[in-house]
């Protein structure tokens, strides 16, 4: 099931991959990792905060779907002023509607977003593109 958007995880190995217990206490680890990676790519402070919020929302949605004792996996692919993030966990997909508040937040913050369910794995993929840096004259 894909809810919207062509956001797909790039082929090949992720640049960074973290696996944490499916517990809300670990969401801050994933948000902080995302912010640190974005800072290395020279994202603006606003873009970094958007990424942190988007990862938090994606984690909340994945935690709702995760089965008991599951782990949440976050994969990050770094590009030229872009980050693709996939947050996934084994479990069944919750019913999502395009007008759900959480989905509206994700699609507002991310350049592109998609929800996928395959082989018992629920995944949310986000693509975030940094705003161009302004140059002083």
Summarize the structure.
It is built from 3 helices and 5 strands. It is α+β, with helices and mostly antiparallel strands. It has a single domain, classed as Heat Shock Protein 90.
Low-confidence stretches: 1-6
Order of the strands making up the biggest sheet: 1-2-3-5-4
Mean pLDDT: 86
The number of helical segments is: 3
Terminal CA distance reads 49 Å
Describe the structure.
With 137 residues, the chain is of the alpha+beta class. It has one domain: Histidine kinase-like ATPase, C-terminal domain (Heat Shock Protein 90), CATH 3.30.565. It contains 3 helices and 5 strands. The chain has helices at 27-40, 45-65, 101-109; strands at residues 16-21, 71-78, 82-90, 112-118, 121-129. The chain has a 5-stranded antiparallel β-sheet, covered by helices on one side. A hairpin with a 2-residue loop joins strand 4 (112-118) and strand 5 (121-129). Helix 1 (27-40) packs antiparallel against helix 2 and helix 2 (45-65) packs antiparallel against helix 3. The longest helix is centred in the middle third of the chain and has 21 residues, at 45-65. It is globular and about 50 Å long. The protein starts with 15 loop residues before the first strand and ends in an 8-residue tail after the last strand. 34% of the residues are buried.
């Amino acid at each position: 099931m894909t809810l919207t958007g062509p956001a797909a995880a790039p082929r090949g190995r992720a640049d960074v991959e973290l696996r944490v217990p499916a517990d809300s206490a670990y969401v801050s680890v994933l948000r902080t990792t995302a912010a640190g990676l974005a800072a290395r790519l020279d994202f603006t402070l606003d873009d970094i905060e958007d990424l942190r919020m988007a990862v938090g929302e994606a984690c909340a949605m994945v935690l709702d779907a995760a089965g008991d004792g599951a782990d949440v996996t976050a994969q990050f692919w770094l590009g030229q002023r872009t980050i693709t993030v996939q947050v996934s966990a084994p479990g069944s997909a919750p019913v999502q509607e395009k007008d759900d508040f959480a989905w509206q937040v994700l699609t507002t913050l991310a350049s592109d977003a998609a929800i996928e369910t395959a082989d018992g794995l629920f995944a949310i993929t986000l693509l975030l593109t940094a705003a161009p840096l302004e140059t002083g004259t």
